[in-house]
Design goal:
four-stranded antiparallel β-sheet; single chain
Length: about 725
């Protein structure tokens, strides 16, 4: 699928027979206090409204108070967490279970070989392997552990094999920074080619059909981590193997080609495909899903002089495309909120005259991937994945999945038949599958079977009536026999942004929570993509309050049905989900016992002024226009904190190298909550020094954060095993 995903990334006996104890909110022997942030108000008038920011100084990393404040908050958080009884036992259990899992994140067939990105059982990081054919023996190609230095881990940010399988282009970065350097590996010898290319954060690598080079996207020269213009004015280049990157050919950027109008937040990319003589130019407006598409003869692009013909604009709702034969298939939500697929020719590309080949139906069409024998289509139907093959004759062949579940991705080779994908569910671990053209699905041994008894867990899907009458899907995962007595602690999570789904997926770290007597729930709130583009738009900009109010209504459902109670409920939001939990916390503080704000957007009024801010304007709006300001003001959790309110316990997290949500956002929210709350309950900010947004974090880092989260929740919800003596 021709698009760049700039956002898409998450012990003991049952507690049910134990009497709940009132949590002690402070340790008797602990005189530690968090650092108190200086209040230096900055007041401005926006569209006739006076807005005061007490902590604007935090936005400058050079401020002499910033680093001591952040480090002081982390020291306080770590001291509090370390004193919670039961925390170490939970950490041990989480590590034991996560260490059993062979996790697979990507597969690519190329040149008769199968490339895969796997974190083997017991390993700490993901690595890239290659095997000759589906049943050959894996050989390690890329191991980021070999790049690591003292106190700093490396991660593989992206990779893609050349069409003939001779090379792998990959980006790697230290400490979760996502500041990728692009390398090329010779697959046969395992050695790297001499060139290294920096500022390749998102890569967007697309190999030439003859594997002699590739198109890729690079940040502009002088781009600096932390600057608000960091992602603006990126450039597409053509790199030829074994040449100096200084001689790369510039092909596309703002103001470079009058036939391709662009704004500074637009990210351009160019894609080629083996078997086709066409290059596809893509312009994506920041994080916006819709794209502008252009076509050019591939030879002209290779010579540095592409001749672009417009195919469609983002106003026409196209979010992806694939090349198949002499046709271009487009995925669009124009006049189809659940998406449809249309076909046009390269000779005369035109969306208005395109032929509809997959009409809108009850399932949401999510992605397309072209193989030699057809185009494979991934859909989501009532939370379950569906895959079918669309042949050149227009006939559809459904893949016969081994069980109902989530299909995370589809991978194909334009020179080979069939498709590869993973399948899992809330209570079934992922399996890697190969789908044949006739619909037969076989399981691969690349990801071995997990040796865990999962029969004692189950899940159910329900619909919750939101306050405006909308049915909101809610997933509930629990151990069999969990009574509906209101006594179980519940971990409720939601996201609701960018049209991203929270599909049923297996997480080994959830199992210890269930073993401790907990309930795990996922609210599929508006702003996500579970029910199509209409669902996304119903939780975006001025409709964004639906995201957190849907979650509040799901929480009330869980309480009303006896799954938990307000004193046992923890609600978590990550990244853009920070808007959801931040406003849940400030709008309905009496509805939950614990709030977990993971690398969360908390200060929406200032969001566009951080490194990743400008590209996010299409999703959230800008304070430069009245409607955008109104929406952002409503989303802003920091400005909705009120003095003297009895807020619940709050654990916030950040990573010092986070390029997506700057640490000053959780820094401000922490300071404001600590100053305002009248409950006496803890507000802590946990900081990862060797991490960023969580993308590229190691298994051990994720295990430790999960253990801290569970221990904090169970302490604050009164579990006697986690109370200080």
């Amino acid at each position: 699928m021709l698009m760049i995903d700039r956002r898409r990334l998450l012990a003991g006996s049952s507690a049910l027979g134990l009497a709940a104890a009132a949590p002690r909110f402070a340790f008797a022997d602990d005189a530690l206090r968090p650092p108190v942030a200086s209040v230096r108000p900055v007041t401005e008038t926006l569209h006739g409204v006076t807005v005061t920011d007490p902590y604007r100084w935090m936005e400058k990393p050079s401020d002499p108070e910033w680093t001591p404040y952040l480090m002081g908050q982390n020291a306080y958080a770590r001291a509090v967490l370390a004193k919670i009884p039961g925390r170490e036992a939970v950490a041990t259990r989480i590590g034991a279970i996560s260490g059993k899992v062979t996790a697979i994140s990507a597969v690519q067939p190329a040149g008769g070989m199968i490339f895969s990105e796997i974190r083997p059982a017991g390993a700490n990081t993901f690595k890239v392997y290659v095997r000759p054919g589906a049943t050959g023996e894996d050989r390690l190609l890329l191991d980021p552990d070999g790049m690591a230095g003292a106190g700093t881990h490396f991660s593989i940010d992206y990779w893609i094999a050349s069409p003939d399988g001779r090379f792998v282009a990959f980006g790697s970065s230290p400490a979760g920074s996502e500041n990728s350097v692009l390398h090329i590996l010779d697959v046969a010898s395992g050695t790297a080619l001499p060139e290294e290319i920096d500022r390749a954060q998102f890569g967007g690598v697309s190999w030439l059909p003859n594997s002699s080079g590739f198109f890729f996207t690079r940040l502009k020269e002088g781009a600096k981590h932390g600057d608000p213009d960091h992602y603006l004015d990126s450039v597409v280049w053509l790199h030829k193997l074994n040449t100096d990157p200084a001689t790369d050919i510039k092909l596309l950027t703002k103001g470079f080609d009058p036939r391709v109008p662009m704004q500074d937040i637009d990210t351009p990319s160019i894609f080629a495909q083996v078997g086709s003589d066409v290059a596809i130019g893509v312009v994506q407006g920041g994080v916006q899903n819709e794209i502008d598409l252009y076509a050019s003869p591939l030879e002209a692009a290779f010579l540095g002089k592409p001749v672009w013909t417009p195919v469609c604009t983002r106003a026409e709702g196209v979010t992806g495309a694939v090349l198949f034969g002499h046709d271009l298939l487009l995925l669009t939500h124009q006049n189809a909120p659940r998406y449809r697929v249309v076909k046009t020719s390269f000779a005369e590309p035109n969306l208005t005259t395109a032929t509809e080949v997959v009409p809108e139906g009850p399932a949401v069409v999510k992605s397309l991937s072209a193989a030699r024998d057809g185009v494979y289509v991934l859909s989501l139907n009532a939370g379950l994945g569906e895959v079918f093959r669309l042949g050149a004759d227009g006939q559809k062949t459904a893949m016969r999945l081994p069980y109902p579940g989530t299909v995370a991705f589809i991978s194909t080779d334009p020179l080979a038949d069939g498709c590869w994908f993973t399948l899992d569910s809330w209570v079934r671990p992922p399996v890697l599958c190969y789908g044949a053209p006739d619909g037969t699905v076989s399981l691969s041994e690349i990801a071995p079977k997990l040796d865990l008894d999962l029969s004692r867990y189950e899940s159910r899907e329900v619909l919750v009536k939101a306050r405006d009458g909308t049915d909101v899907p809610l997933s509930i995962v629990y151990a069999k026999g969990t009574p509906l007595s209101g006594k179980a602690p519940c971990y409720l999570t939601a996201y609701g942004a960018y049209g991203i789904d929270l599909d049923p997926g297996f997480s080994p770290r959830v199992l210890p929570w269930l073993d401790l007597g907990g309930v795990y729930a996922v609210a599929h709130v508006r702003g996500g993509g579970e029910l199509g583009e209409g669902w996304h738009q119903a939780g975006q900009k001025l409709t964004k309050p639906n995201s957190w109010r849907d979650c509040i209504d799901c929480a009330r459902y869980l309480i009303a049905k006896g799954w938990t109670s307000a004193g046992k409920l923890a609600v978590e939001g990550t990244s853009a989900g920070g808007i959801m939990i931040g406003r849940f916390l400030t709008e309905a503080p009496d509805q939950l016992a614990v709030a977990i704000v993971r690398v969360g957007d908390s200060n929406a009024l200032r969001f566009e002024f951080m490194e990743a801010g400008a590209p996010n304007i299409p999703e959230f709006g800008t304070i430069a226009d009245p409607a955008g300001f109104k929406g952002l003001q409503e989303m802003d959790a920091v400005s909705h904190v009120k003095d003297g309110v009895r807020y619940p316990a709050v654990m916030l997290t950040t990573g010092v190298n986070d390029p997506r949500v700057a640490p000053w956002e959780p820094g401000k929210f922490t300071a404001r909550l600590q100053a305002a709350t009248a409950s006496g309950k803890p507000v802590i900010l946990r900081v990862e020094m060797d991490a960023g947004h969580g993308i590229g974090s190691t298994r051990k880092q994720r295990d430790d954060e999960t253990a801290d989260t569970y221990a904090f929740i169970l302490w604050q919800t009164g579990d006697p095993r986690f109370q200080p003596h």
